Amino acid sequence: MSSSSSDGVDEAVEEWFDEEFDNLVDSLVNDQAKKPKRRAYYERHREEGHNQLWNDYFREHATYPPEMFRRRFRMHKPLFLRIVDALRNEVPYFQQRRNAHGRYGLSTLQKCTAAIRMLTYGQSGDTYDKYLRLGESTALLCLDNFTNAIIQLFGHEYQRRPTADDLQRLLDIGELRGFPGMVGSIDCMHWEWKNCPTAWRGQYTRGSGKPTIILEAVASQDLWIWHAFFGLPGTLNDINVLDRDGIYPKWSTFIQSISLPQTPRAQLFAQHQEAVRKDVERAFGVLQARFAIVKNPALLWDKEKIGRIMRCCVILHNMIVEDERDRFT
Question: What does the mean pLDDT of the chain come to?
């Protein structure tokens, strides 16, 4: 009798202990799940990053000469400072502000330099953490805001419809080159999309076996890209800005080369035509050389962001062409 009662007590104690233990574990798990996760903070001393950048490129007697600035930023310093001033005055994100402790945040130069370096070198966001003192997520945010700001502030001017003076200049150049009425040459380039979603891989894949996005552009002899489409063939998205009348530029006449010219006249025409049609190929080559992000496979998942990056690179390319056009020999 005494042994059976003791066994019942032991079982009751074990059940009570198991129940209390389970309740304790469940409460700890729930509390841990409800507790908000804090982001890891690293003191990067962002002021030192700004001072280093200023001393290297922007002070009166900078460490690196203008030639090195042009090589690393893909543009001359006055043009870059023009972009920085426009973003500082028009876009709140690029305005340097104080936080709750009265400490200044990242400067406009740091944010613009991070975005430009990612476009020109095509590297990841944390590449310039040691130099510019900003994290990967901040660098990607700078790139996103930079592309949007460039499109909003400079898109209407550098993706405009050709004016009467522009069209007359293009026609005069075409006539001097032996093709009266020629405005520019048209062609396509492919930008590989490495992280293309599996569901879309079939419609973005062509003969190479890798998903790509197509850029179709019209370029003139001075490498200015007058008209561009970006997207799928047949459903290309126009990345040019509409003019005030809502009209796109029209390129209605296409002249193909003679693949097997037989007569001397046909051979002469093919020789000159093939020389002229290399304008757009040169424009694509210069665009990829200036902005390695459109040369390397695209690593983003969002095709809208990829389209904005391409459009931003086209605008910056035209800005550089305009700035350096008088320097051509």
Answer: 83
The CA distance from 166 to 159, in Å, is 13
Model confidence at 294: pLDDT above 60:
yes
Looking at 49-58, 131-140, 180-189, 281-290, which range is the least confident one? 180-189
Lowest mean pLDDT among 82-86, 115-119, 131-135: 131-135
Cβ contact 151:130 at 8 Å: no
* DSSP collapsed to 3 states, the chain: CHHHHHHHHHHHHHHHHHHHHHHHHHHHHHHHHHCCCCCCCCCCCHHHHHHHHHHHHHCCCCCCCHHHHHHHHCCCHHHHHHHHHHHHHHCHHHCCCECCCCCECCCHHHHHHHHHHHHHHCCCHHHHHHHHCCCHHHHHHHHHHHHHHHHHHHHHHHCCCCCHHHHHHHHHHHHHCCCCCCCCEEEEEEEEECCCCHHHCCCCECCCCCEEEEEEEEECCCCCEEEEEEEECCEEEECCCCCCCCCCCCCCCCCCCCCCCCCHHHHHHHHHHHHHCHHHHHHHHHHHHHCHHHCCCECCCCHHHHHHHHHHHHHHHHHHHHHHHHHCC
Closest CA relative to residue 179, chosen from 280, 274, 318: 274
Rounded to whole angstroms, how far apart are CA atoms 93 and 114? Answer: 14
Q: Please give the C-alpha separations between residue 72 and each of 64, 69, 105, 287, in angstroms, as whole numbers.
A: 10, 5, 25, 15
Sign of dihedral through CA atoms 88, 89, 91, 95? positive
**pTM score of the predicted model:** 0.79
